[in-house]
Amino acid sequence: MHTHTAPVRRTQVERCCWPSSLRLLTVCALIAGCSAADTDITLDAKATLNHRIQSLDLLVFVFLLALTVLTIWLFKHHRVSWLHETGLAVIYGLIVGAIIRYAGTNTTLVHMQVEPQGIPTYNAKLPPDTLWFKYPVNQTNATKLPEGVKTYAYVFRGQVYDIEENEIDLKATFDPEVFFNIILPPIIFYAGYSLKKKYFFRNLGAILTFAIVGTTLSAFLIGGVMYGCVKLMPNYLSSSFTFLDTLYFGALISPTDPLTILAIFHDLHVDVNLYALVFGESVLNDAVAIVLSGAIQNYGEHYSNTGEFETTAFLRSLSDFFCIFFLSLLIGAVMGCFTALLTKFTRVRDFPLLESALFVLMSYSTFLLAEATELTGVVAVLFCGICQAHYTYNNLSEDSRQRTKQIFELLNFLAENFIFSYIGVSMFTFPKHHFDAGFIITAFICAALGRAVNVYPLSWLLNIKRKPKISSNFQHMLFFAGLRGAMSFALAIRNTVSDARQTMLTATSLIVIFTVIIQGGAANFFLNWLKIPVGVDDETEQLNNYQVHSSDGYLQDVEGGGGGRGKTRLSSGADSNLDTPLDGNAATATIAAGGRRRNSHEKAILARIWGNFDTKYMKPLLTHSRPTLLETLPVCCNPIARLLTTTQQLTQDGSEFRRVDSDSDICIDNDTGNGLSQDGLGVGRRNSINRMEILEHVQSPVSTRIRLLGFYGKKL
Amino acid sequence: MHTHTAPVRRTQVERCCWPSSLRLLTVCALIAGCSAADTDITLDAKATLNHRIQSLDLLVFVFLLALTVLTIWLFKHHRVSWLHETGLAVIYGLIVGAIIRYAGTNTTLVHMQVEPQGIPTYNAKLPPDTLWFKYPVNQTNATKLPEGVKTYAYVFRGQVYDIEENEIDLKATFDPEVFFNIILPPIIFYAGYSLKKKYFFRNLGAILTFAIVGTTLSAFLIGGVMYGCVKLMPNYLSSSFTFLDTLYFGALISPTDPLTILAIFHDLHVDVNLYALVFGESVLNDAVAIVLSGAIQNYGEHYSNTGEFETTAFLRSLSDFFCIFFLSLLIGAVMGCFTALLTKFTRVRDFPLLESALFVLMSYSTFLLAEATELTGVVAVLFCGICQAHYTYNNLSEDSRQRTKQIFELLNFLAENFIFSYIGVSMFTFPKHHFDAGFIITAFICAALGRAVNVYPLSWLLNIKRKPKISSNFQHMLFFAGLRGAMSFALAIRNTVSDARQTMLTATSLIVIFTVIIQGGAANFFLNWLKIPVGVDDETEQLNNYQVHSSDGYLQDVEGGGGGRGKTRLSSGADSNLDTPLDGNAATATIAAGGRRRNSHEKAILARIWGNFDTKYMKPLLTHSRPTLLETLPVCCNPIARLLTTTQQLTQDGSEFRRVDSDSDICIDNDTGNGLSQDGLGVGRRNSINRMEILEHVQSPVSTRIRLLGFYGKKL
């Protein structure tokens, strides 16, 4: 029985701003020195201090982001390509983290051991939610409470695992759940919302194979190998790891996050199929990994007591995995479709602000709904984003399309850079790191191994049936694109109660930092080395394959930016298609319809079945597209079909909305997409030039000019 | 000495979703019934439950907002004008609040009285930050902790005031600080960012008088009268109120929030000076009220022990008020100007996404900086917003201008509707309401009285010197526009520890609800009754006064929307100014320069001095405008002036950037402003018509068409 009172402990959540440190010291002095003052005032001062510390914490990150933004600009301005913004954010994060760690001031946390008043009768299975603690206050001002005793409430926080040293840090930099509830949702939603559906669907089979089979395979392989290696290590480490721990590590280190690579692909116009493979896989394997790690967690906590293999527990975890994944998918899809219906059958598009608000609210409610029903919000928003892009986007007014895209683009940018800064900062400030060189080296090797198992055998399998085969250079690039990022880190920092988990966090942080900076930086070089064709526009690729999509390619050219790399972009299709580029989508679709028979054999069967169903039933139901349900449903259903078909759908100009080939339906298409996307490199300048060139070509009546206005209005 | 274990208490933070209630019951059953299960699992289930409850809470509000959005659309669609969106949000909030209150399930909070372990030696002035509590766990699985005893940490929450009944509700719906840190900042920033500076500066004197003198006067009057009245009331009430309490009430009930009125003004094109008075005052008096109430709070807590009048304490509070107000103003202005410098001297505008991100980050860091230095963040972002609009906005790329405006517009819309929904919901769910009919009636009378004292005597004073006098009808309208809103509620709910404060919260909530619904609904009728001229465009007003601003008015016409009220908008200036409307600002400015001598005597002296300084030094320094510093600074400063002048500033076309009269410099001007603002009523349709009409007029060469494209690109 001993009373801990005010043992001085460091909490590393500190700041580096000098004026505030001064004020901080003042308040500390106030707290320490005012023996005659009222406890209320000191408490008040302390609450103020806490608020200010929180503000400062956030301020550090906001400044860090602002600094990153300015440096990215400098880099882009001077055409530096060996460091991407996420790498930069990590590096700045590391620097600031080190400053905070070694130059920051300390605050102390005081704790006291307590016991129940009177005879402890525990009739509940749970510790109480709050403790009430009577504290004698030697105050002179007796007007407020005559006894001089105040009762304070204390809220349940969590278990203290290691009483001697590594106690729970109650001022942790950020609650890890922040990532799952605030930072990741906009990133994942934007990934879904900006998915290039055209090539995504064409490569659906390969993407699903890599994402679902590959990630699972990689997780189990890494888990197994790591377990073997760990057992060969010194005792203190091997005793703290169970197989479930290493399996969890396998699941969290498997998802890839090739932001850097994709930015470079985008700038260099790398082959679209490669782009689709890398992007599609990285989006979906995030979803797989979060559900997989949840299932592994459940296996350990609920179904199995021993940590060894048990068949029933395994089956329950497996069903968990599939249930949660598909129910989350369902919720996301249903909410997306519901938004599409709302925007189709109301005229809310007359008021773009209301429409945008509705869009944002419905998307956010998808996340909340999934979380409230114990599903995975992040997976739900991913599929919600895909549905919003595929259906709702078509119903939105021009203003809302642009506004929603711009908002989510900005949110995505800020969230992404925040999380990478935080990875850097937390390397120094997060109190629960546990460095172990052996584990870290093994983890690096296993991460590479896991990626290799994901890419090579599956590519070989896919190549058996696949028409445009995945060449070995593409396979190497896929392997190389296996950077680890936000999702791995968020999963690793979520649970750091045991030594094993802390070791895993440290290894994960280092892998993320290393891959983002080194692999991200070397991507350009690697592309050259592997002789991956760059500057391959949609245009070229399509002209080679089908000789039809020229107008689409032309549009992408005009809009794609490409940083003034000096290539002659106004090429081939331009002159012959002088009229069609004005509404590129329709033109593409019409032309694509002609080429459809030719390329349909190249599409995956899955994509073809879905494409047919989508064009015949889903799109007519959820958007204003043609053919209407009146045409596609059997005659007996005509009354219902009429009810679900809007007047607009019946009366509109067929050429504008008819999209025969769902494959070529890029909802977030190039004409609005690229001009506003990640880099926006020199778009302003290029546009003004191209616009003039087009104007000099076009000698058409007023109506065309209006279409021109409408078209160019979109991207300005 | 007694042990409270599991006394069943209602906490009113409940939800209404049936499937979730079912699941909730399941988990509750699980918690209660699993005597053999592991405590860890139960704790885990409880944590999950808590997370789900939070998600559900948020979900309720998100659905409420979505419902509000849809209903607003219906109302606008059917041209219902007697209920504004904020009124609607309040009404829906009340309904949902009632449902939650009377149909919700209950969760129970368990608390336990504890005492220090061993001999309590309190050598600190403060209660400890955390309590460590050893809890015996009758678990069978002894692998984890052999003793069967776990230590849990409890975090300090706050004082328990009334042990018997009204104990601290640890599951309060939302932490009131959420309003000051998340909800209010975007609202206030947007108010500053969208301030119509033209008429704002012309009416600066009146606005400052109403906002600073008026609000203070009103606060003290209400405080005094309320104190007198309260002392006449039954003993239990009169004993709980001090003069400081009623003064605080005066300060929090004084700021006005005429959202509804302004929306109607905007739709009906009410006289611009009246609009500027109402808007300018409401923006500034929020800032005054928050600082004033902070000073009163400080007076009570820090400077005075008795609650009676003390000269030194009063003087210290007074200096607090001025210091905090002007330092916050300064931080906001400095950060705004710093952003302007950043955007002027870098070419970050080549990358609109980076530029927008920088803008958002700098604006948010203003708030954090002010909070971290113990100033008032809300006041800082207000002035930051004004500076961003006045300077930075001019440096931004077209894309960023639109993006930032759209983002903050949407944030403002969501935040506003959220807070009004919450006012409705909390009327039923917030546990600390204290109804007292006498106090509420007195509060209503005093609120009206305070508004009257604010408007009538000050108008009389102002009319002595003012050139366009404030007519008595305008004064009645000003009085009537005194709705109470978000700021009053946020200040009232911030502190609810005493009976007095709870009574004040209830009265404030009711005043807000009443004024928003009833006064807001009657505004249209009242406008007619007072014969306030509506349909007064800038155009008409300006044509009458100066006969020059026609092109500006014309632009506003084209863009203003006005909901197809059928007025002939393409009038007067249109044909004669076929060329100038294309860059309306420049045209306005140039013409205004001619009319300047004529109208300068009508401007307030303050505005004139500031305008000169601004045009000569601030704008050349912070934006790309002309004249440059080389022209305005004395010759000896030429080297510095050259350094601060960009090449763009020297080489650009003078007519585009020369803004002689800062008064006519509407940064957020009508051509981009109104088209995207609050209602967006029928803008899409109108634009397409007008665009065609203009196109039929314009028969000019390619270069003009490009300017056309640039101009229309802005608002699409």
Polypeptide structure, described:
The structure is a homodimer of 716-residue chains. The first copy, chain A, has 716 residues and is mainly α. Chain A has a domain at 176-542: Na+/H+ antiporter like fold (Up-down Bundle), CATH 1.20.1530. Chain A is built from 30 helices and three strands. Chain A has a two-stranded antiparallel ribbon with strand order 2-3. In chain A, α8 (243-253) packs antiparallel against α10 (272-303), α17 runs antiparallel to α18 and α19 (538-545) packs antiparallel against α20. The interface between A and B is large, with 147 and 147 residues.
Main traits of this protein?
homodimer; 716 residues; mainly alpha; Na+/H+ antiporter like fold; two-stranded antiparallel ribbon; 3 strands; disordered N terminus
Q: Could you estimate the helical fraction of the residues of chain A in percent?
A: 55-70%
Largest interface: A-B, 147 and 147 residues
Query: What ranges of chain A have pLDDT less than 50 throughout 5 or more consecutive residues?
Result: 1-37, 139-147, 164-172, 539-601, 654-716
Counted by DSSP, the helix tally of chain A is: 30
Structural class label of chain A: mainly alpha
Q: How would you state the average pLDDT of chain A, rounded? A: 72
**Largest sheet data of chain A:** 2 strands, antiparallel
> In terms of quaternary structure, what is this?
homodimer
The CATH architecture name of one domain in chain A reads: Up-down Bundle
- CATH T-level topology of one domain in chain A: Na+/H+ antiporter like fold
Radius of gyration of chain A: 29 Å
Number of strands of chain A: 3
Strand content of chain A: under 5%
CATH top level assignment of one domain in chain A: Mainly Alpha
Q: Order of strands in the sheet with the most strands of chain A?
A: 2-3
Distance between the termini of chain A: 72 Å
Cα shape of chain A: globular
Organism (chains A, B): Drosophila virilis
GO cellular component, one term (chains A, B): plasma membrane
GO molecular function (chains A, B): potassium:proton antiporter activity; sodium:proton antiporter activity
Keywords (chains A, B): Antiport, Cell membrane, Endosome, Ion transport, Membrane, Signal, Sodium, Sodium transport, Transmembrane, Transmembrane helix, Transport
